[in-house]
């Protein structure tokens, strides 16, 4: 069977991953979502002129010539805290004690920070000359009515949510999060700490894949372990597509006699079984059942994660309105050789990437590169893209997909 180029396989997947509808969601559930409407400011932020410092509100002209040696004494006529209306008139020769965020009182046009004042009996000594507007934040200094706040198509960050909340919004229109079913297939799989019977292993894929689904911003629905039986697999997939926007399975898509996932998918849906020109994660069964995308990922733990990264992540993100996979791809230096043989495939080596003093990324192997060696995947924070050939020599350049924080 001819190998499918990675780009072709990904295009095939993305073709069936359609953008979900827009929904208004509470700000609290919107981080990472993509907006479907532009938001424009409809009020001033800040809403009134206020002080940026704790100190005294004054008439700047009254501070003319003030120094630490020759302070100007101003009569105190009140105190304004944040939250007070601030309607204490500051006349010539007077001052009002004022706290950060409190409104500027009428008559005052500047603030002297508390560190440049000294208390006096019913008065304050000002030890510095200040200009009009000193430490005053004008109304609308941040936003004015009509200012664009977020464009449609923006991936919302915590700061965006703060800006929206600052304008009084409680919710925002975004592409809704996908509900994604996750299930493991395999008669050998068990869960939890109990003793293993001969031939059994513990299910690890469901935990990694569920977490990866959530990392894309989608909601994960755990459908458990399904036995290697066509009827069981068909029933699980039918249930999944009836309640979810996408399905991620692992196992049962290789050449083995009991690899039923690809067979069932072909029977109950439209499926393409691909041998993608990559290592790990060569087999991929991708299709739709009732129009719902199903990602039939391979069972080997590293393969299922790499396959998720290369296919499911871009697909799910596209469904949620994102234009890219959201992973940073950078050029790096291989501090040690990344060895391989010619086999017609692109290899994705599990590596540890770090930023070097020379202003470049550097990578080294994260450990065993077998597709069952999940511990090396756990130690890695990047995948090095090693093109077909004899590998990358020590000191050679290599493209790297960053998966997580740099060490
Ligand atoms: P398969 O793709 O079903 O042929 O499985 C390939 C390999 O991955 C086999 O060694 C399986 O035992 C293993 N495997 C399959 N599913 C899981 C899982 N959920 N967790 C850990 N290993 C798995
Ligand atoms: Mg299996």
* Annotation field: number of helices: 7
Q: Unreliable segments (pLDDT under 50, ≥5 consecutive)? A: none
Number of DSSP strand runs = 28
The percent range for strand residues is: 25-35%
- Determine the N-to-C terminus distance: 41 Å
Strand order of the largest sheet: 7-4-6-5-9-8
Output the structural class: alpha/beta
Q: What is the general shape? A: elongated
Average pLDDT, all residues: 98
- Give the helix proportion (percent range): 10-25%
Q: Name every ligand kind in the structure.
A: adenosine monophosphate, magnesium ion
Integer-rounded radius of gyration: 31 Å
The biggest sheet amounts to:
6 strands, mixed
How is the topology of this model organized?
Layout: H1 6-15, E1 22-26, E2 39-40, E3 50-51, E4 55-58, E5 72-80, E6 94-98, E7 110-113, E8 117-120, E9 123-126, E10 136-137, E11 148-150, H2 158-166, E12 171-175, E13 179-185, E14 189-190, E15 201-202, H3 205-215, E16 219-226, H4 230-243, E17 246-250, H5 261-268, E18 270-275, E19 278-279, E20 283-289, E21 292-297, H6 301-319, E22 329-334, E23 338-339, E24 346-355, E25 361-365, H7 374-379, E26 382-386, E27 391-392, E28 397-402
Parallel strand pairs: 5-6, 13-16, 13-17, 14-15, 17-21, 19-24, 22-25
Antiparallel strand pairs: 1-12, 2-11, 3-10, 4-6, 4-7, 5-9, 8-9, 18-20, 20-21, 22-28, 23-27, 24-25, 24-26, 26-28
Helix pairs in contact: 1-6, 3-6, 4-5
